[in-house]
Design goal:
single chain, alpha+beta, 5-stranded antiparallel β-sheet, 12 helices, 26 strands, 25% strand, flat
Length: 501
């Protein structure tokens, strides 16, 4: 069965940017027969299997995921029908998001996924039990015990071998069967062990088994606890492929007390399904303002366009930005310092992997506790700005602090506009925002008689265009000390009802 054929048979029409064909698809969904296989649309082009699987994991076991990135779609198979029904019912009432993209979930026409052609599986990974794990941005030490605790959530772990190669910590993890390895890869690939760091990149190893000679801090055979303890490097049949074996880092900062596996179990058992879709379930507890970093490292910026003021405006949606520094020798990177660590974590959760001017930002907590101001007259002085006394902080005013925070959401294609003078018309605002992309829809709020300023919703053609519009047009000066306030909105413009934020 061809994957493209599977997906084509599930969708008869493409959902356009303005959602004009949404009604027909909703009608089809209402008449669809429940199935363990779900069809998901509107995914990012570079979405991973684990991101898709994360949508279904709160509701039950995910049996399989198939991606077709050129169509921004996926098929997800749940292990039983009740889990699939629970998932569809939940997301029919609560919008689902993958990296700030609103995605649509419906039953597939297929009762199960059979990925075979000419008698052979289309997946070359199906018969493998060993995972090759690379830990990126490793700010805390990772131990064999920690890896076992994390990966054993998905199956029985037989053996683990750790090593260093190309200045990165890596591991080989052998499961007792292919099902455990598949679930582990599907669930953990691309996620962080700790908030903002220790990101897991997982592939299948070409090995069929691991040979472990010693149980020590670098390797472990859980099927043979009587192996000798030795400080020499562990031996595996993949040694020749990884000759630079240095073992686990011997020193480093003390890591948080909760591991990824504990956080995962806590979210599933304590938070419940209702809280789960908006939770970062693979991260440890959020650092307190006294212990965590208030500085975010932002990578992969559009260095030809971005300025400290742009980053102050965008990141200021989620907290009070104190300082911004665009790195002089690497202008596609910047440091953004918040008033406290909680605000930094909030911004990281909402803006990681969001696109700005054609570049997908990558965020992580910085090792620096603050951004230092350069000396006057240095060449990079203009790349570092202090906003401590700026009048444009969104949360500085106590009367608007609570209200502003209650409407916080990840970037969407719909923007909430406030502080609009009565003389400004819909055409004025459409013309203004068309400088940043295609305006799809617009609606003024019903104005209260006592209100001196107007509010509105405006929908851009994509989330990326909406982000660019907010960065460019927030604080637009209308004259007489009146400035436009632009925020992301969860609302969908409905011309049959009054707009609401």
């Amino acid at each position: 069965m061809e994957l493209e054929t599977c997906l084509t048979s599930d969708v008869s029409e493409y959902v356009s940017c303005n959602g004009s064909k949404r009604r027909k698809i909703d009608d089809n969904q209402a008449n669809a027969k429940p199935s363990c296989v779900l069809h998901i649309r509107g995914l990012p082009g570079d979405v991973t299997e684990s991101e898709v699987a994360a949508l279904g994991q709160p509701f039950g076991s995910v049996a399989n995921v198939i991606l077709t990135r050129n169509k921004n779609q996926s098929l997800l198979e749940m292990s039983d029908l009740s889990s699939a029904q629970m998932m569809v019912d939940y997301y029919s009432k609560q919008p689902a998001f993958v990296r700030s993209n609103a995605v649509f979930i419906q039953y597939s026409n297929h009762s199960q996924l059979k990925l075979e052609a000419d008698g052979q599986s289309l997946s070359m990974d199906s018969a493998r039990c060993i995972l090759h794990v690379i830990v990126d941005n490793m700010m805390y030490p990772i131990t064999v015990e920690m890896l076992n605790q994390i990966f054993s959530v998905y199956g029985t772990v037989l053996r683990i071998v750790t090593f260093n190669k190309n200045n990165s910590f890596q591991a080989l993890i052998q499961y007792s069967d292919t099902a455990g390895a598949h679930k582990g890869k599907l669930s953990l690939n691309g996620h962080n062990i700790f908030n903002g760091c220790c990101k897991l990149h997982i592939e299948y190893s070409k090995l069929r088994t691991l040979s472990v000679k010693y149980n020590n801090d670098k390797s472990r055979d859980f099927t043979n606890p009587n192996l000798p303890w030795d400080s020499s490097p562990a031996s595996a049949s993949e040694d020749k492929q990884f000759p630079h074996y240095d073992g686990l880092l011997s020193s480093g900062p003390v890591f948080p007390s909760r591991s990824l596996a504990e956080s995962l179990a806590g979210c599933l058992s304590n938070q419940g399904v209702a809280a789960f879709p908006n939770a970062s379930f693979l991260a440890s507890s959020v650092p307190s303002s006294s212990g965590g970093s208030a500085v975010i490292l932002v990578s992969n910026l559009n260095e030809t366009r971005v300025t400290p003021d742009h980053l102050f405006t965008l990141f200021g949606v989620f907290g009070d930005v104190v300082r911004v520094k665009v790195l002089f020798n690497k202008k596609d990177k910047a440091l953004v310092q918040f008033r406290d660590a909680a605000q930094a974590q909030l911004a990281l959760n909402h803006l990681d992997y969001v696109k700005l001017w054609g570049k997908q930002m990558e965020l992580s907590l910085s090792k620096y506790k603050s951004v230092q101001m350069p000396k006057e007259g240095t060449p990079d002085a203009h790349l570092t700005q202090d906003y401590t006394s700026s009048p444009w902080h969104r949360f500085r005013n106590s009367s608007t602090n609570g209200r502003s925070r209650s409407h916080l959401c990840s970037p969407t294609d719909t923007l909430h506009l406030a502080n609009i003078p009565p003389s400004v018309t819909e055409d004025d605002l459409r013309t203004l925002f068309s400088q940043c992309g295609t305006v799809v829809d617009f609606k003024f709020f019903e104005r209260l008689a006592s209100a001196e300023k107007k509010m509105a919703l405006i929908q851009m053609c994509s989330i990326e265009e909406a982000v660019g519009a907010l960065v460019t047009l927030h604080n637009t000066d209308f004259g007489n000390s009146v400035r436009l306030c632009v925020s992301f909105s969860r609302s969908v413009i409905n011309h049959g009802q009054s707009a609401s934020s």
